[in-house]
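Worked problem 6 (solution included).
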Amino acid sequence: MKGGDDDDDDVWNASAVILDIDSGSWADRSPLHDAASQGRLLALRTLIAQGHSVNVLTIDHISPLHEACVGSHVACTRALIDAGANVNVTTIDGVTPLFNACSAGSLACLELLLQSEARPQALVICQPSPIHEAVSRGHSKCVEALIAWGVDVDYEIPHMGTPLYTACRCKEFLCAHKLLHGGANVQKGTHMETPLHAAVQKDCLSIVKLLLEFGADINARNLDYKRPVEIAPPGSLTEGFLLIYEATPRSLHQLCRQQIRESLGRSRLHLLPQLPLPKAMNDFLLYR
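Solution. The predicted structure is:
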């Protein structure tokens, strides 16, 4: 009988552990997670000083650093990194602290992570991409920082295409502008769909004009073998603009600028200001 009671106790204890995991026990969220998510720096430092591991993970592999970054808590992020937090830790869904910083639009957290050797982009194509996240949420400063740290501006993931394609789909003009200045391929979107197709579908005239200024091919065809003008909303400003643009010859100075930039290549675009050219010419080549 006693053996039966012990077995019952074991079953009850196992159930309690399962319930505790779901309700927020040590196996789910630690005191460090709570302090980091709420931005309580003093409590965080106290816990670290008491010996709590900064790399403790929840059952979903969320770290305190993930929490600090998604909450834009810069001081907590710095304290965790200084204490040895893994800056490239990933959740079971492949999310990194850098991704969370981009999601929150926290430039300060992003730069702290990059300075601490966080990878600027996902290494596996199926993992969430920090630059795509920043672009989709319109965080242009984060996009600019990632470009400066050498992220691949043409990094393509299956369900979102390139960052530029994502910017066009989300109608994020500033992000599209930063990407193009960073050397993004104006023709690369997803499969045969170009960024121009995406911008036209969204009837975003400002981005359409930007793409064309950077040399987008108005005659490119998508998987349905349609040119951008053929998928523009009927009667829209975008359709009217494209019809006029098609009938207007490109200016020689625009063609020259595109050819010079293409000849230099993305890796040398940052050297443009150093060319021995008049300021007006430099500004022209840099689209200023």
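Discussion: The first helix runs from residue 2 to 23.
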